Predict the structure.
Amino acid sequence: MVCCAEQNIQLWPAEGTSGKETQPSPLCATTSAGCFIGDITVKTLEEKRKANLKAVQKHRQTEKFKITIKRYYQSKKCKAMSKRRYIRYPERFKAKQSVNYAVIINKIPHIKTRRCYFCFEQAQEYHHYKGYERKFWLEVIPVCIKCHTKIHKGVA
């Protein structure tokens, strides 16, 4: 077993090897025999991230997860969090409500019929690009979650 101090994880030698011929690189890259974390062979950090993302996505499709989320949204904790968010940002809440109402009365097309303004993927949210003031409530662009996050972080 080899310990990687940079990532604070333990690496086991691949099956069929003694582990003595495997020496960790500074970034825990794959050695000639390969390193294992649990039962997953780690080749690059990107592959590890993709594997983790797939596992999370698979978990989110399970009935157990859906029941847990539903139970959370009905809990007092979630409702208290929503109330605090509304008290802190009432203009955002009202702007979002006005967009939802505009979709209901067909003033704005439903988000599932739109593409992201930036990357042309399926849009999932509307972005208030001029702000949350009352006069700009319906001034929105369709964006995907990735691009919306980048916008609010100031990357895009």
Confidence is low (pLDDT under 50) at residues 1-11, 24-33. The chain has five helices and six strands. The radius of gyration is 23 Å.
